[in-house]
Amino acid sequence: MARPDKAADVAELTENFRSSTGAVLTEYRGLTVAQLRQLRTTLGDDVNYAVVKNTLTKIAAKDAGVESFDSLLQGPSAIAFIKGDPVVAAKGLRDFAKANPLLVIKGGVLDGKALNSDEITKLADLESREVLLAKLAGAMKAAPQQAVSLFAAPLAQAARLFAALQEKLPADGAAPEVAAEEAVSDAADAPAEASTEETAPADS
């Protein structure tokens, strides 16, 4: 019975890695059952915080293509599998660790990229997706002509706006409002080119 049970555990962990936006590995040595329950409540429904066995997790991580956890899987381990906004999850883990120093954030992975503990802390310092969207809306109101051009653009153009915003915020270190305005400006320049490409076949 031991082997089938272990195989099922590995399969479940592998699926958690594959279906999650990100995963954060922690050590919980010394935390009580009540504290772990509190942490799960704090992280909410979009995070599955699971106590794991290191040997099985190494196998599952490898099967899922995650190679950054091998050297970190030591001591009592638990992983936060993130289904929602990774910034919100990182904030929850960071704040709980501040209040409960026995929780140690060891590393993680986000969209296939390995993160160390410092990078997870930096992630927690970013604005959440909801806040960024609100600031983006504010920037668009401040630039109505650009907003009109954006709304007239194809759906793919709007997707490029959000991609541009995502790139500008962490890379430039600019204030979110400034980055949002720049992203709107970048996206607003593209509809004319897109329109030219779309109407070209009709001229022939």
TrEMBL record:
InterPro entries: Ribosomal_uL10 (IPR001790), Ribosomal_uL10-like_sf (IPR043141), Ribosomal_uL10_bac (IPR022973), Ribosomal_uL10_bac_type (IPR047865), Ribosomal_uL10_CS_bac (IPR002363)
GO molecular function: large ribosomal subunit rRNA binding; structural constituent of ribosome
Name of one Pfam family that matches: Ribosomal_L10
Region entry Disordered, spans: 174-204
Record-level GO BP terms: translation
Keywords: Ribonucleoprotein, Ribosomal protein, RNA-binding, rRNA-binding
Free-text function comment from the UniProt entry: Forms part of the ribosomal stalk, playing a central role in the interaction of the ribosome with GTP-bound translation factors.
Family from the record: Belongs to the universal ribosomal protein uL10 family.
Protein name (Swiss-Prot/TrEMBL): Large ribosomal subunit protein uL10
Species this chain originates from: Kribbella caucasensis
Gene behind the chain: rplJ
